[in-house]
Write a structure and sequence with these properties.
The protein is built from ten helices and 20 strands. The chain has 358 residues and is an alpha+beta fold. Strands 2-8-9-10-3-4-17-16-15 form a nine-stranded antiparallel sheet. It has a nine-stranded antiparallel sheet with strand order 5-6-7-14-13-20-19-18-12, with helices on both faces. It has a two-stranded antiparallel sheet with strand order 1-11.
């Protein structure tokens, strides 16, 4: 990821905010089902700027005290957490277990029903949102990066302790609710140039003993993930057919094979571990619609799919990785696995079959 170097700039003075609010209301008149993320794109602003045109009874700014807010989520009972990128939306419902803040507040980790890897250095703004829903008010906590793009959202459910929810919002409410926003330019992803000699990469890849060494290896070689796959080649990485995500999910649902689904953006990775059961295509979206896990995928926007193998002390670990047209990773699927155990043979056999079919 690289960030543009244009200076920080201020947005949303009252007159500009009023004009933006009018434009958004007009847009909703013509497209009532338009989501705020898409509306912001159409209007050429960030999602945060659009959100803050709403009155304070709908949108409250919170202090950006993320390393205090997220450990406090364990007090709320069952919640739904949502992480997404442009191609995939990942929603998990559960209770937040102990949330650990690490590396001087730059990172966070949560394991359990809600499974998160958080990169706080990219987070900049927070809001508490109340919007009309079919069953009454819908409450959420929404986190944004320094450019105003949404990073992570937390929604109240029927089983959330709303007294604790409102206490959290009160505790972290910002003193100044509508200050001018100093937003940075949106980050721009750029592919890395291939390395002249891939042999050192191939040798180091073959010597990995833990999948968590993978990211540091890419940094040492100055490569993004997709360029590394292209250069390391077989037997470690192989491109497969563009319908492989749908085929793999249909197969694991039929076999009852538990998986791990990783989805994220530059600020967070959210993980689901377990079986998937109810699959449904609706237009451009292919969906997992289970009680505690939803996954919504614009499969037509996944322009490259790869089966990837990484060595470990427990044997090779196999994943199906999906990339968008820019070359960004948007979804990774693994077989369910715990450290110290080999990956599921049913998962490994399935991806070998996908390779053969491709």
């Amino acid at each position: 990821m690289t960030q543009a170097t244009t200076p920080t700039h201020e947005h949303s003075a009252p007159a500009q905010r009023d004009g933006l609010q009018a434009a958004w209301h007009a847009l909703r008149e013509t497209q009532p089902r338009l989501r705020i993320r898409n509306a912001a794109t159409q209007l050429g602003v960030s999602e945060l700027e659009l959100l803050l045109t709403e009155p304070q009874d709908k949108v409250l700014r919170l202090q950006p005290a993320f390393t205090e807010i997220y450990p406090s989520l364990s007090l709320l009972g069952r919640i739904m957490t949502l992480a997404r990128n442009d191609e995939v939306v990942h929603e998990t419902t559960g209770v937040m277990s102990k949330f650990s803040v690490m590396e001087g507040g730059r990172m966070g980790l949560c394991l359990g029903e809600i499974d998160l890897r958080v990169f706080f250095s990219h987070w900049g703004h927070a809001c508490a949102v109340t919007e009309a829903g079919p069953k009454g008010p819908r409450h959420s906590l929404q986190m944004f990066d320094h450019s105003g793009q949404a990073v992570h959202k937390v929604y109240a459910t029927d089983d959330t302790d709303m007294q604790a929810w409102h206490a959290l919002v009160t505790r972290f409410r910002a003193a100044d609710q509508r200050p001018p926003l100093a937003l940075e330019p949106a980050p721009v992803f750029q592919r890395k140039a291939p390395i002249a000699d891939p042999h050192p990469l191939q040798e180091e890849w073959a010597s990995i003993t833990d999948v968590h060494q993978f990211h540091d290896m890419l940094k040492r070689h100055g490569l993004d993930r997709l360029t590394a796959l292209e250069q390391v080649g077989e037997p470690w990485a192989r491109p497969v057919a563009l319908d492989s995500v749908e085929n793999v999910l249909n197969s694991v649902a039929e076999m009852g094979t538990p998986i791990m689904a990783f989805v994220g953006n530059r600020g967070i990775v959210q993980i689901y571990t377990g079986q998937v059961q109810r699959l449904l295509r609706t237009g451009e979206w292919f969906n997992v619609l289970d009680p505690h896990f939803n996954l919504h995928m614009r499969t037509g926007e996944m322009t490259q799919l790869w089966v990837v193998r990484r060595p470990s002390e427990d044997g090779d670990i196999t994943s199906l990785d999906a990339f968008n047209a820019k070359g960004e990773l948007v979804l990774s699927l693994f077989g369910e696995r715990k450290p110290g155990k080999a990956e599921l043979s049913a998962w490994r056999d399935l991806l070998t079959q996908i390779e053969r079919l491709s």
